[in-house]
């Protein structure tokens, strides 16, 4: 009877020691299986959306306007600062762009100042000019941010004349455009001819100091001839170069004038 009165203990199932860590892991899929089996599957019945028209006559939220006004007033004050008087309308055109030439002039001036030595030539790629027109009159900081919204920086590279010729041929094949400073050329049969640098014919064996953007030097636009050359990456933003160039004119009391406006002909 003593044997019968003993409580029967359930047999324990033991996992090998190296599998003990799997007990909670095994419990998770079992829980999910039970949970899923208790719920009927759901199917997507419809998709809805609501349009919000962004236009000048759209209803305005006065709370947001009030909240943002203090920031807008501060930004507007900065962006509407007049940097210089622009003497003539600047246009983005092909093959010659006086707007692009103005930007290239700014890079040439800023690069020479940065390097403390004359830089021979400078370029502005056509696609990087983000507005088509800057009107004559007051040129504000806002215009500079609109024409150059990117944080691209000026890069200085010493380039042999034959590479300059190859680069100009590449630009000529695209129809010219952009901006150049320190040089002129003519497009004939999609090639650059009659190339002059600082008033002298291009010497294909001579070394020239060039200022260009990191975008262009790295192959942006499809020309890769500068990529393997030794480069001086200035970290001088092109936008800052434009701002400094405009301020320089203002300090000297001079209006902004693009000298020799016709630099690329066709």
What is the CA-CA span between the terminal residues? 119 Å
Average pLDDT number: 88
The CATH topology of the domain at 79-258 is given as 5'-nucleotidase,  domain 2
- The CATH class of the domain at 79-258 is Alpha Beta
What are the low-pLDDT stretches, counting only 5+ consecutive residues below 50?
Answer: 1-6
What topology, given as strand order, has the largest sheet? 7-3-11-6-12
CATH architecture of the domain at 79-258: Alpha-Beta Complex
The DSSP helix count reads 8
Oligomer: single chain
Q: Return Rg in Å.
A: 33 Å
Number of strands: 13
CATH superfamily of the domain at 79-258: 5'-Nucleotidase, C-terminal domain
| Share of residues in helices | 25-40%
Protein described:
This protein is α+β, with helices and mostly antiparallel strands. It has a domain of 180 residues: 5'-nucleotidase,  domain 2. The chain is built from 8 helices and 13 strands. The strands form 4 sheets. It has a 5-stranded mixed β-sheet with strand order 7-3-11-6-12. The chain has a 4-stranded mixed β-sheet with strand order 10-9-8-13. It has a two-stranded antiparallel ribbon with strand order 1-5. Helix 4 packs across helix 8. The longest helix is centred in the N-terminal third of the chain and has 18 residues. The N terminus is likely disordered.
